[in-house]
Structure formats: C-alpha cells, structure tokens
Design a protein that fits this description.
single chain; 222 residues; alpha/beta; Rossmann fold; 8 strands; 49% helix; binds 2'-deoxycytidine-5'-monophosphate
C-alpha cells in the first residue's frame, strides 16, 4: 500500500502550498487535482462545448490530452500553466467538476498518482472519495476575505491582474457550488485534522500537518 496524505479545502485555503511543501519535505509525489478540473474546463471552453451538456463534458475529460512535465502543464502539447490559473479557468473548473461523468473520468487518473514512496494529494474530495483509506487526512479552511487576499497576491505575483472585490464574490460563489453539488461535495472527511488558517502562517500549518504525519508514519524521519 502506497502512503497517502490528503489535503482538502476550499479555494485559496493554502492547500496547494502546503501540499507542495509537504511533498518536497517527504520526497513524495504531489497531485494537484484542481489542475485536472481546470484543464477539462479550459479544453471544453476551447472546443466550444456547452457547459450545460454533461455528455460532451465527460467526453472532453475522457479524451483529455494533458501532460505534466516537471513544473509545466501541457494541453495538446501547448503550455497552459498560466491559462489554467486564471479565475475564469477556476470557475469553469468548478462547473465541470459538478458533472458526475467528468469526476468518474478523472478518478483512475488521480489514483494512478499513488506511487512509492508516497503521495500528497490536494483537492476537494481527496480524503472523502479518491483516497478514502489515506492514513492522514487534512482539511484546511480560512475565511473568504483572507482567501481572496491570498489569491490576489498569488495572481499579482504571476502577473495576472485581478479585482479584489470580484475575487471575494467569486470565491463565495465557487465555495457555494463546490459545497452544494450532489457528487463529491467539498466537506471535511471523517477523522480529518481540521486547521483554520485565517490567522495562522504557512509555517504553523505545516508544523501541525507534520505532527500528524509523524504519528501516522513513525518510521519517517521528518
Ligand atoms: O483547487 P482549485 O482551485 O485549483 O480547483 C478548481 C476547481 O476544481 C474547484 O472550484 C472545484 C474543482 N475541484 C474538485 O471539484 N475536486 C477536486 N478534487 C479538485 C478541484
């Protein structure tokens, strides 16, 4: 059994940053499952597929020509690393993510990331659906305004312009859609370590996660 740590939470909760830091610290693989939904959203948009057509959206997910090469994300050979990070791509992702057939199409793809020595997986349903047997599950939250502030900073650092008030509104809208959908809604897995990070710096979050990792895998020297 490959060791898996899941990190779920709403948009901007810091789960991507924590997942990457933890994977580097452990020397494990890292799965950013949101990137897959963002790729499906982008591919569907580019192909002119209707977001109200679940059959066509599932076909896009099943035929997704995506590759992860180091830090680069390719769609049909084109580098879309920046294009999938925009708020618009996040919203398209949240829409396709509500389609059961799209989620089913991405399931095996995500599980295939569980390779030795271990995997840190971040998303919305990593601990509830994709890796329900993971020995360590984390659920990260922070209030919407703080998450919008972090997202704003991240986007500006990447040279993507964004309006703060729009970001808060979009984050709330996305939370609502992700939490209320019928399939694999965003919610804390049973027995998850829940961390409210509004006033907690990244280093403090990482310390708490590491503590849980050490007790689940006592042989690891981290
Ligand atoms: O984590 P993110 O912001 O990159 O995710 C983009 C969208 O994809 C998010 O609004 C909901 C969806 N998503 C999901 O439904 N399940 C996941 N495991 C990851 C992301």
């Amino acid at each position: 059994m490959v060791r898996v740590v899941t990190i779920d939470g709403p948009s901007g909760s810091g789960k991507g940053t924590i997942a990457r830091l933890l994977a580097d610290r452990l020397g494990w693989h890292c799965l950013d499952s949101g990137a897959l939904y963002r790729l499906v959203g982008l591919a569907a948009d580019r192909a002119g597929v209707s977001f109200d057509d679940p059959v066509a959206l599932e076909a896009v997910a099943r035929g997704l020509e995506a590759e992860f090469v180091g830090e680069r994300v390719l769609l049909g050979g084109e580098d879309v690393g920046l294009a999938i990070r925009t708020e618009q791509a996040g919203n398209l992702a949240s829409k396709v993510a509500a389609v059961p057939g799209v989620r089913a199409a991405l399931l095996d793809w995500q599980r295939a990331y569980a390779r030795p020595p271990g995997l840190v997986a971040d998303g919305r349903d990593m601990g509830t659906v994709v890796f329900p047997d993971a020995p360590v599950k984390v659920f990260l939250t922070a209030d919407a305004e703080e998450r919008a502030r972090r997202r704003h900073k991240q986007l500006l650092e990447k040279g993507i312009s964004a309006n703060f008030a729009h970001l808060v509104a979009e984050i709330r809208e996305r939370d609502e859609r992700d939490r209320s959908r019928a399939v694999a809604p965003l919610k804390a897995p049973a027995a998850a370590l829940e961390i409210e990070s509004t006033a907690l710096p990244i280093a403090g979050v990482l310390d708490r996660v590491l503590e849980r990792v050490r007790s689940a895998f006592p042989d690891l020297a981290v």
